[in-house]
Amino acid sequence: MKNFSLVTSQDRSYQLAIWEQRAIRVVLTACALLSVAITIGIIVMLMVHCRYFFLEVPWPQFFFGTKWAPLFEPRHFGVLPIIWGTLLVSLGACAISIPFGLGIALFLSEFAKPRTRSIFKPIIELLAGIPSVVFGYFALITITPALKIILPQTEVFNALSASIVVGIMTIPMISSLSDDAFRSIPRSLREAGYAMGATSFEVSFQVVLPAAISGVIASIILAFSRAIGETMAVTLAAGASPKLTLNFLESIQTMTSYIVQVSMGDTPHGSVEYYSLFAVAAILFFITLFFNIFADFVLRKTRISYI
Amino acid sequence: MARHQENQDNSSQSGFLFEESTNLQRRRLLATLFRRTCRAISYLLVGMVCYLLWDVFSDGIPWLSWDFLTHYASRLPEKSGIKASLFGSLWVIAITITFALPVGIGAGTYLEELMPEGKLKDLISLNIQNLAGVPSIVYGILGLAIFVRTFNFGTSVLSGGLTLGLLILPIIIIVTRESLRSVPQSIRQAALAMGATEWQVVKYYVLPTSFSGILTGVILAVSRAIGETAPLILVGAVAYIRYTPDSPLDAYTTLPIQIYNWVGKPKQEFHELAAAGILVLLAIMFLINLVAIVLRQRKQKTYI
Predict the structure, then answer these.
(1) Cis-peptide, bond into residue A74, ω within 30° of zero
(2) A180, A298, B53, B233 — which has fewest CB within 10 A?
(3) Residue A215 sits in the same domain as residue A82
(4) Whole-number pLDDT of residue A217
């Protein structure tokens, strides 16, 4: 235990402590500013490389073109097919993660016994910790063969198995955040509902869910944003054929799997393909940034206090 | 009057009492169905997780052996192992930790303890929150442009480690801030009242008190970095390496990359090798998390 008492401003040790504080402040400020530097670095790096890209490819062709074939002649740089692929997988993932995530969150916060809860919680956390390449294995080795049995026309690489694993991956996100939101609602609100004669279904949907709606919506937006940025599972499961399709059983390509495909090959530094990485990454970055800020906004603006 | 009023603002007060009795039966049935569905969904997920894990186990266990751990990757499945990727992972993580740990804890401490309130602090906080949500592959692109090209580290362990360091930096900052926030204000005030400088308060009281909390968070961040694949593909981790790295500037491969490579091959044996690799990866992550749990439960200085 340090003895701080009886120090005066003339004391040597006091002076030393002041200098130490000044020095450490400078070092730690630098650490904190590094995080800002990373963001600026990402944006500047993307912009600089995009400039080179758009010198070669006119931007209307990039943003409105419907054919994406950057790696072989004749080249086409229409980004819509891979954006569509990303959306298809992410929406498919949400179709799984929203009902599952909310069902689990409601079960854990409203119906489960404390003991059941204490078993389920760690399992869901475990699920959140499994690396994405492992989900890629699940998709390709376990889920796709199973799908083929049910739907024989399923291709080896297909959007459906990618959607399923990305959905499973994002369940913990929705269930944990929504569970937190449900549990922050005071018990008295539920009891008021039950005292009025409402059933558990009515309390869940007319009391709990509306009261926690901002947390629930934020969790869904974050899960969607995570699904958009998901890479390895999608690359392994969905294949590499960019197309505008609604058929989940076909192979598609997402923005992230395009980036992986290019970087797995020998792309010469400075070529159009190389710069196309940055253009695609810029779209990815700004889409996810938008959703993250949106989720934050939803949480801030619509938070209701029950105290 | 019952059903029609449910869309009113105060939906929780919408006259449940006045339902007719057949309606009541229907509502009760609906409630029971709903409860059962929620429970079924939860058990279904747990069952699915168990099935997937069991699937990996049954495929991978026969391939797990000492040879698997001590051989390099090969064209022949029987002779393949994960020596290079295991060492590569260790090297990358070592660099990630040396970079991200001090910087992350430093930044978190500064933001939570020393930084004056204001616009700049809010801005940095929001920025860190958003950085944590940036897809990992974007960090890979950043690493490619900055470490591989601009700093000219090439496709080396150093580039990979620093890239993953950037990736987990926001996570470490966030967990540091959270555990510092749980230290009671009275400790700080007591020390300040005794004439300690702000930094002395942090150094002698706040950081030691929150040590195990920070460590737990850091360990979780590191286990995320161990499983990360996409950014390393971009900064050039290659799968065919038949040596272990000797210096930070050597080429490397990591365990997740090796798994990715094996999963992508058409032959059944390589899929089983991938399953064995996954088992090793999960075992490492499990051990790391076990350390976190032990540390969390270890007796620490408490001030309550």
Answers:
(1) yes
(2) A180
(3) yes
(4) 93
Q: Kindly give, in sequence order, each residue whose CB lies less than 8 Å from that of residue B280, ignoring residues fewer than 6 positions away.
A: B64, B69, B82, B86, B255
Residue A49 and residue A75 in one domain: no
In DSSP notation, A90-150 reads HHHHHHHHHHHHHHHHHIIIII--HHHHHHHHHHHHHHHHS-HHHHHHIIIIIIHHHHHHH
- Which chain B residue's Cα is nearest to A38? B166
Of residues B31, B56, B260, nearest to A133 (C-beta): B260
Task: Report pLDDT for B290.
Answer: 85
A238 and A154 in a single domain? The answer is yes
B303 in reach of chain A (CB within 8 A)? no
- Whether residues A151 and A264 share a domain: the answer is yes
Nearest-by-Cβ selection for A120 from B31, B46, B229: B46
| Residue A160 shares a structural domain with residue A252 | yes
Q: Which among B46, B259, B74 has a CA at the least distance from the CA of A126?
A: B46
CB contacts, 8 Å: A103 with chain B = 37-38, 41-42
Q: Say whether A133 and B256 touch across the interface (CB within 8 A).
A: yes
A98 touches chain B (CB under 8 A): no
Residue A261 sits at the chain B interface (C-beta within 8 Å):
no
CB-based contact (8 Å) between A132 and chain B?
A: yes
State yes or no: pLDDT of B73 exceeds 90: no
pLDDT tops 50 at residue B11: no
The answer to whether residues A27 and A103 belong to one domain is: no
Question: In chain A, whose CA is at the least distance from the CA of B30?
Answer: A201
Residue A3 lies inside a defined structural domain of this protein: no
In a domain, A133, yes or no: yes
Instruction: Give pLDDT, residue B298.
Output: 66
Q: Give the residue from B6, B27, B45 with the most A CB atoms within 10 Å of its CB, the best one to mutate.
A: B45
- pLDDT mean over B13-38: 76
Domain tally for chain A?
2
What pLDDT is recorded for position A167?
95
Chain A: residue whose CA lies nearest to B257: A133
Domain of residue A288 covers 68-302
Count CB atoms within 10 A of the CB of residue B71. 17
- Residue A149 inside a domain? The answer is yes
Query: Is residue A2 domain-resident?
Result: no
Amino acid at B288: I
Q: Are residues A110 and A27 in the same domain?
A: no
Mean pLDDT by 10 residues, chain A (307 residues): 54 83 91 91 93 88 85 83 93 95 94 90 88 93 90 88 94 93 91 91 91 92 94 89 86 91 80 89 94 89 64
State whether residue A52 sits within 8 Å of chain B by CB. no
pLDDT per residue over B126-156, tens digit each? 999 999 999 999 999 999 999 988 898 888 8
A269 touches chain B (CB under 8 A): yes
Cα distance from B67 to chain A (closest Cα, Å)? 22
Same domain, A160 and A283: yes
Instruction: Tell me the average pLDDT across B224-249.
Output: 84
Q: Which domain CATH number covers A117?
A: 1.10.3720.10
> Which of A232, A234, A236 is the mutation pick for testing B, counting most B CBs within 10 A?
A232
Which of B 187-226 lie inside 8 A of A, CB atoms?
191, 194-200, 204, 220, 223-224, 226
C-beta neighbour count of B8 within 10 angstroms:
11
Tokens 């009671």: give the residue.
B184
Tell how strand A76-77 and strand A68-69 pair up.
antiparallel
Distance of CA A182 to the CA centre of its chain: 21
Could you tell me what percent of chain B has a pLDDT over 70? 90
